[in-house]
Amino acid sequence: MSMALPSASVTPPKRNSLKHIPGDEGWPLIGHTLQILADPKGFIEKRAQKYGLVYRSHIFGETSVVLLGPDGNELVMFDQDKLFSSEHGWGSILELLFPRGLMLRDFEEHRIHRKALSVAFKAGPMQSYLAKLDRGIAARIAQWRKQPGEMKIYPAMKQLTLDLAATSFLGADIGPEVDTINRALIDMVAAAVAPIRRPLPGTQMARGVNGRKRIVAYFSEQIPIRRVKGGDDLFSQLCQAKDENDKLLSAQDVIDHMSFLMMAAHDTLTSSLTSFVGELAAHPGWQQKLRDEVMALRLAADDPISSGELDKLPLTEMAFNEALRKKPPVPSMPRRAVRDFSFMGFAIPAGTLVGVNPLFTHHMPAIWPDPDTFDPLRFTGEAQRARHRFAFVPYGGGAHKCLGQHFAYMQAKCFARHFLQNLSVSLPQGYKPEWQIWPIPKPRDGLRVVVKPV
Predict the structure, then answer these.
(1) Would you identify the CATH topology of the domain 7-453?
(2) Strand pairing report for 435-436 and 442-443
(3) Backbone angles phi, psi at 195, to 5 degrees
(4) Which of 189, 212, 358, 372 is most exposed, with the fewest beta carbons within 10 Å of its own?
């Protein structure tokens, strides 16, 4: 079932219809694209200072309106009046590579598919994923422990999250195809943010489109097999998922959802865990507090961890949240207005590309005093209750809130347990990491850290 949007509602409005919004268009054709790519945080903060929390800009070939702060996040993410299309916001970025993923569906169709997919994130399957994650992380940390000294944590983390996605999403016995799938996924993710948007020969987009063909071929071959034999991995769970009429999801739907979920799971988690380790390396006092919390579980190195034991790591979760606050894995989120709306006194027409910005919200001094300081105590229960509910939005919000949020916390705490139980981490003398913040934060040089056995 699809809830079609009227075609007029997703056609960009005439440029003059946005002239009343504060802002400017920047350079001819390219607008502010180069400036926002060079320094997304600084650019938006300067715009907010100059124009306020609602402003007009021209990036990636189109004039858009940016709504900043928790109220803007709530209007767009919670979307009580169904004013904003995620499909027509993300479409130009993702449609060639991850078409019809959950983020590229809207309203009733999105609700139906989200409900069908949620079966893969229920308690039973999650316990199975935890067991596989626990074993996979333990094995990888044991390797790191055998090679103390300086390492680049980002590529190591990327390999770890790819391996974990393969085992918990596709099953431990996937075999040699795992390398092909991982390579295809890496090409698809890189193509999603490539400047050339057509799959011309030799371009990153062409490699991404070819990667999608390989993934589609693998899933197409596997779906009938998984439907017969079942399994407790996420792919097998989705192959058994049913819609509201008790019919299995189509093979194409399973393919689209799997490729999107694997992308969403591994790239954002690589970023989040890397920034988490970077903060621990820079703050030895907090690192020790978290290690004490992990050690209090009294688990031997090869003991499996349960979800109940993960719940006994509140400081670890708070520290992970603070890393997400400082470097949200999705720093900006696009939508397209499907009807006219108004915000903070500005009338904004249907068809307008609208952006919200978790990165800006997460650094507003009025909400987060001294926002560049790492302070996990911002996430005590009392502190969170005192804040606007859309002041902390690393997973989005509303109907499109990340379906894998609990999976991410489970993986982060499981990682923290093994990492802190086995290793201490610090930054090399005099080293200051530099980060590329957009489209997904990653350290420019891989983030050099020094690891030692505890």
Answers:
(1) Cytochrome p450 (1.10.630)
(2) antiparallel
(3) -65, -30
(4) 372
How many residues make up the chain in this entry? 454
What tens digit of pLDDT does each residue of 38-78 get? 899 999 999 999 999 999 999 888 899 999 999 999 999 99
Where do the domains of the chain lie?
A: 7-453
Query: Positive or negative CA dihedral for 395, 251, 185, 61?
Result: negative
| Alpha carbons 36 and 42: distance in angstroms, whole number | 8
Mean pLDDT for 421-431 is: 97
Average pLDDT over residues 124-133: 90
pLDDT value, residue 89: 92
In the prediction, which pLDDT does 140 show? 95
Q: Which residues sit opposite 435 in a β-bridge?
A: 443
Contacts of 112 by beta carbon, 8 Å cutoff, 6+ apart: 1, 243, 244
Summarize pLDDT for 398-425 with one digit per residue, the tens: 999 999 899 999 999 999 999 999 999 9
- Which residue in the block uniquely carries the two structure tokens 């100059």? 50
